[in-house]
Amino acid sequence: xxxxxxxxxxxxxxxxxxxxxxxxxxxxxxxxxxxxxxxxxxxxxxxxxxxxxxxxxxxxxxxxxxxxxxxxxxxxxxxxxxxxxxxxxxxxxxxxxxxxxxxxxxxxxx
Length: 110
Hints:
Blueprint lengths: L3 E4 L2 E4 L4 E7 L9 E5 L4 E6 L5 E3 L7 E6 L4 E6 L8 E7 L4 E2 L3 E6 L1
């Protein structure tokens, strides 16, 4: 059963912007923490708590923004000033569901 679905990945040029979406069938995002992770190591990129507090990895601070739309059951990751080192598969994880999405590929060329 698919419970989290990421979308929005693509092939980008350095300096461009991209927004990823993580959608859930249940309204879990407003009651639990959700994070965006990337790569094989599933490094934390950003997370948002039920209270709306956010936290970012140092390597994306000032460039990426995580947000939430409770009505749409969706968490977003706005990525600005993309760099080639941002290339990775990006995953969404929700603490209440305890599951990962399938991931969405982001590729940034120089």
